[in-house]
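HUMAN:
Sorry, I am quite new to this. Are you able to go through these amino acid letters and fold codes? The numbers rather puzzle me.
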Amino acid sequence: MARYTGPVCRLCRREGVKLFLKGDRCYSPHCPLEGRRIRANPPGQHGKTRTKPTEYALQLREKQKARRIYGILERQFRRYFEMASRARGVTGEALLQILERRLDNVVYRMGLAASRAEARQMVRHGHFTVNGRRVSIPSYLVREGDVVAVHPRSRNKVRFQEMQERARARTPVAWLDVDVDKMEARVLRYPRRDEIDTPVQEHLIVELYSK
């Protein structure tokens, strides 16, 4: 499966905001956006150039930001937008709901992974089940009532024991009923826009794809 394998801190610098792609490093002084001012500029020889962005540039940056936060390439992201455009309600909100329903994102929201990239790897390695059946597809979309859990054979692994302790200190999202002791979560409903903390202006993405 195709995925981005380059330096992820470069992506945060390009967007000018923390995308939290490297887990604990994003909260430490080693984050480029926390260091010297020059490192907070966009990468490349033209990174310091200050120009007023066009309307298209603003729309493109929001789309790229959403893609990079969830770790999705262009073709799949466009498919998600087409799904959202056919759904009832506001297209932008429906798009974010679809992104939040990805299995790797649900694992991240459960607190059992330090980043979505780590959650993606865990899912690919078969460490999670949905309704008792092992699922190794990170893009699997959960539905209301689904139960996502760590596979019984994986619960004693050191990494899951560490993440279990960290998950106890995290405030779970409202649309998931997380049981840290059992390492599982039930999808109560689809998230509302005010419950999604992704820092994107989804209406700009809709405008970009609607041209």
